[in-house]
Amino acid sequence: MIFINRGHQSVRSALFEQVFVRAKLSHGPDAPPPRFFMRHYTKSLISPTPPRTVRARVEVRSIKVAGRQVHVLMPRAGACTRLVLYLHGGSYVTTFTRQHWNFLAKLAETTQTSIIAPEYPLAPDQRWSDAYRMLFALWDRLTASVVSVNVGLMGDSAGGGLALGFAQALRDAHKPMPAAVVLLSPWLDVTLENPGITHLSPLDPFLNVEALRAAGRAWAAGSNPRRHEISPIYGRMSDLPPLSLFIGTKDILLADCRKLWNICAATGTHLDYYEYEHMMHVWMLMPIRESGYAVEQIAGILATQTPCADRDQLNTLFEEAGA
What we know:
- This protein is of the alpha/beta class.
- The protein contains 10 helices and 10 strands.
- The protein has helices at 11-23, 52-55, 98-111, 128-145, 158-172, 196-200, 209-220, 254-267, 289-305, 311-321; strands at 2-5, 59-65, 68-74, 80-87, 113-118, 151-156, 180-184, 243-250, 271-280, 309-310.
- The relative contact order is 0.18.
């Protein structure tokens, strides 16, 4: 299924875009590239743990898996809840931001979904294989308590690429599979060699190609950057759960998202593709009208593809973890 939103850009969306344009986050070809670990967020937006404003809206619990913090955002009402394992973006070098937590709280409230949000290992101190080891440990813990068909897998930007790569890795390891995979502006190829990126770069007010390539090299840490765990667009797409992908037309990652659509169409892989005109990178996380549309569509995906789980099943996860 292909959904193309050709509606007029909302005023708030246009204002957000101008803020990023004026901040010159996406530099021209003659400007010096920023160092990869200087992610385009101010320190005030970085928030490794859910802030108080989010804790006031949803119940938050935390456990440790493989020595890493895992936060769970649970809606306060409803005996039946859906479950989503959410992998945050940040170019594999930056942790959660307030944008992430606000979006996840909204998603939990709107869809009656419990969000499992791990602080997975990041470059440059760690690498892709460390993150996969942690995620496998978390998945084993989760599926020991909850039937895997009750769990969705979702991620934005780098987390979207990691979500698809992790789904491929679960398949190859013959592990229980998630019910569905939802990708939000996913980073599918860390090499960024798709020629379409050159044409999209002047339109993107947010992403910096050279900074992303440097972050991708740090994440790969000497491994082949075309390994499917690092760049899942090179992996096999068959025998995966239903995929859904959201992307905007002012995002350099659009080129590889369209490439993924063509691959899935050729291989018969289920991919529901949502493309929004005028939208930039991770617009789904922003407080704009178009984000509300996307949340409604995500709610429909979760309602049809992830069955309800008993809330007590999730409580078992905490009991086994000693939380």
